[in-house]
Amino acid sequence: MEGDDGRHSQRHKVSTTVNSSGRGRKIIALTGTAAIIAIAANFAFLAFKSRKNRRNRKELVGSNVRVNISAFEIRKLADQIVAESKGVHDALASVPVDKVKYQDIMALAELEARQFPMIQSCIFPRLVSMSDDVRKASAEAERLLNTHFASCRKREDVYRVVKAFVTRGEWINAEAKSYVQVLIRDFERNGLNLTSTKKEEVQHLQARIDDLSMQYIQNLNDDGSFLLFTKTELEGLPAEFLQILDRAADDKIKVPLKSNYVSPIVELCKIGATRRRVAVAYGQRCKEVNVPLLENLVVLRHKLAKLLGYDNYAEYAVCSRMAKTTSKVFEFLEDLSTSLSDLAAKEFAILQDLKKKEEGDCPFGIEDLLYYVKKFEDEKFNLDFATLKEYFPLSFVLQGIFKVLQDLFGLRFEEILGASVWDEDVRVFSVFDLSSGELIGYAYLDLYSRVGKYGQTCVLPLQNGSLSSNGARQVPVVLMISGFTKEDGNCPVLLRFSEVVNLFHEFGHVAHHLCNHASLVRFSGLRVDPDFVEIPGHMFENWCYDSSILKLISGYYQDITRPIKNDVCISLRSWRHSFSALKLRQEILYCLFDQIIHSTDNVDFLELFKYLHPKMMLEMPVLEGTNPAACFPHSAIGYEATCYSRIWSKVFAADMFASKFCDGLLNHHIGMQFRNKVLAPGGARDPLECLSNFMGRQPSIQAFVDSIALSEV
């Protein structure tokens, strides 16, 4: 189900270094489980000791990130950022167009390098601070800074100077050329190369599109619709779920039509009529207001794109991304769908047979998909995820991840005791190159929930790496946020397996941020092609399904010498791709809808869904009375014309993993090749060129399809 708000992760010998005191380092050379147990014990000791050293705060050498910043300081810093930025832009605008030099243009790049950690210092407290005042000041600063930098991209006086430099073509290097080209693209996407009248129309359209996009999401968030059911009609739902639902006057159970209530019902409820009723009502939300709103949005987007010189909005959205053209996107989606068709048909036959045995000869509908998938998986794999959780203590999983990152990519994490942080549970690590001992950067881990804190797991760049004009390198600094709940007493934080996978995914982003070696802030950290940015995270998930890695990161919380059993490892690997063909074809269906409406004029949304749904979902029709366009937030905001990107990154991640890592998950040589050829080049390099350079060939969908077929039910 779509979310309501539309929002955005071996037993080789190792040498692991941990900081055992504020002065020296202690080298521990152990193997396998013994290494992890020793490190975990040391990790717990360091966590205790670090709390005793909070008074002697240490600053991170080379980091310009400000932590523990007050509301007053945030507002003051934001004003300083705006003032300095305005001064640099004014100075560039004053340069005569016939005298502009490379150094004049690169003043903007140097400004970005100085200001990025200052900007992030203003913004990240909104996500982590327990203070209402600080969070409010941070949100205000973010709005102020967004408004200012948006206005900078509309400055005609600066555009004229940069354009004059581009015309002369005096490039110092390829990255600098890419930087100036990106500046020009940003200016011209605001219409600065158009007549005054057309430029004003572009900016009016942009504002109107933003307003309508937010209104679409707000409509879904404000929707208060619900259904009433008897307890019998909700057979199969666990008692703890039913207890959180309100009761109506006639003692019926009130089910709000929000994804966190709907998903358990369509997955667990044994009553087919209930599943269908809930799925239909969920698909009818905001139909009367959001369908015409999205239709209007698409019209405005096409109009904007055509003003800017594109044939349609999809072309505008895709041309600067890895896919390059809409025809390439359609080719990718259709080839993948075709490759999955036979396997999807086999999966569907299994589900139809299950429904026939349980409910008789009634037709199989889309509302039955999740219920019978889960039913099959429960019987086939016998995975008790509640029990499995007891084998993944957070501290133990973290140490396993650190070991993998060290063995594979040569990244050694060493905790800094007594560093300045915004909460006592935040941990800070220096990250060193294992071979040279050189400081690569810093990583903050803020993993536990608290009042006022953002609750999802994500990675936030705090300082991007860069190379200054005098040759000095600014180190990257990254923050991982999560919302794990601390248990009372001595019980450690235990992770669901899905949380373990998500943690690996996000550490893929951490590694990417730290290893990106671009010279300019505009292309360093995670500021890379949007079609590429998720690839490292998706690829790193693969390590969660290998038996040797699973044993490395698991240990029963009351006896960590007991990892999960071999049969569980095998079941998890098979479960991973269970019914993946059907699920992916459903996702491709929505990607095709998104791409078609943004590349074609005057599309009837409902008729398009009626055509695509049975074609992609093996003759299953769209639910009667629904129009999925009413509650598909990705097409409204954030992913418009680019919904394909998630599948794109998963496919290429699978291709890299299968071609290079499948036979050696901790092969340091291959890991360093990946670090140097894929993670290091940065956003100025063509990502397809980077992937091809690493794999020795062009990327392909075949490895992804094969990985699913190998796990065929």
Please tag this protein with its features.
Collagenase (Catalytic Domain); alpha+beta; Glutathione S-transferase Yfyf (Class Pi), Chain A, domain 2; five-stranded mixed β-sheet; 11 strands; 713 residues; 28 helices; single chain; disordered N terminus; two-stranded antiparallel ribbon; globular
Model description:
Among the domains are: 71-193, Endopeptidase. Chain P, domain 1 (Glutathione S-transferase Yfyf (Class Pi), Chain A, domain 2), CATH 1.20.1050.40; 225-284, no CATH class; 388-555, Collagenase (Catalytic Domain), CATH 3.40.390. The relative contact order is 0.12. The chain has helices at residues 32-52, 71-93, 102-123, 125-128, 132-152, 156-168, 174-188, 196-222, 239-243, 259-268, 272-283, 287-307, 313-318, 326-359, 369-381, 385-388, 394-409, 497-515, 535-541, 547-553, 566-576, 580-597, 605-616, 633-636, 645-661, 668-679, 687-695, 702-709; strands at 16-18, 26-28, 226-229, 253-256, 411-415, 427-433, 439-448, 458-463, 466-467, 473-474, 477-484. The protein has 28 helices and 11 strands. By secondary structure, the chain is an alpha+beta fold. The radius of gyration is 26 Å and the shape is globular. Strand 1 and strand 2 (26-28) form a beta hairpin. The strands form 4 sheets. Strands 5-6-7-11-8 form a 5-stranded mixed sheet, with helices on both faces. It has a two-stranded antiparallel ribbon with strand order 1-2. A two-stranded antiparallel ribbon has the order 3-4.
